[in-house]
Automatic annotation (TrEMBL):
It comes from Candidatus Accumulibacter affinis. Pfam families: ABC_trans_aux. Residues 31-187 form the ABC-type transport auxiliary lipoprotein component domain. This is Membrane integrity-associated transporter subunit PqiC. Gene3D superfamilies: ABC-type transport auxiliary lipoprotein component. Residues 1-17 form the signal peptide. PROSITE patterns: PROKAR_LIPOPROTEIN. Keywords: Signal.
């Protein structure tokens, strides 16, 4: 009787172990956007710049990466996620790019201390942020640069960057390059305003 009970208990233990291991989900992976702009060769900017905020479309305003599966279909990947909210990640990447392009460390995002007195404020509305695995990242944005005394300058940027490689890391890198090009356009507008 004892041997039969031990066999039943062993069998149940194996079934429970198999069930638990079958329920384990794959580990989540987290991605960031990085600065991809290069210096433009102009003298360092003597003024401060603030990236006030970035709005993103509701379809991609979530932790999970959203990828295009067709013209009217997307997939939300539960296990591949942005490491921070997408709007704040784009703002940070733009600020880091502006540091490089403008040649000044005086670029910031978010709330500032009273001692930081920016000459220019940047606001960005991302209207399209699409990720097509193995194909391209697409970024359409409208942006506004407001100077302390000048009339606001606005612009529109459309960038399409090929995804070089497979996987989500390649998608994040392509978006980083597109944001780098957007940042160069914003930096050019700031320099043009400063020269007036």
């Amino acid at each position: 009787m004892k041997k039969a009970a031990v066999r039943i208990f062993s069998s149940l233990t194996l079934v429970v172990a198999a069930t638990v291991s079958g329920c384990a989900s794959p580990p989540s992976r987290f991605y960031t956007l990085t600065a991809a702009a290069q210096p433009d060769g102009a003298p360092p900017a003597p003024y401060a710049v603030v990236v006030d905020g970035v709005s993103v479309p509701a379809t991609v305003d979530r932790p999970q990466l959203v990828v295009q599966k067709g013209p009217n279909r997307v997939a939300i990947d539960e296990f591949n996620r942005w490491a921070a909210p997408l709007g704040s990640s784009i703002a940070r990447a733009v600020a880091e790019n502006l540091v490089v392009v403008l040649g000044t460390p005086r670029v910031a995002t978010g709330p500032l201390s009273a001692s930081f007195d920016p000459a220019y404020h940047v606001a960005i509305d991302i209207q399209r942020f699409e990720s097509a695995p193995g194909e391209a990242s697409t970024l359409d944005a409208v942006w506004v640069v407001r100077g302390v005394t000048a009339t606001p300058v606005s612009g529109r940027s459309s960038q399409r960057e090929p995804v070089a490689g497979d996987g989500y890391e390649a998608i994040a890198a392509a978006h980083s390059r597109a944001i780098g090009k957007l940042s160069r356009e914003i930096a050019a507008a700031i320099r043009a305003e400063a020269a007036r």
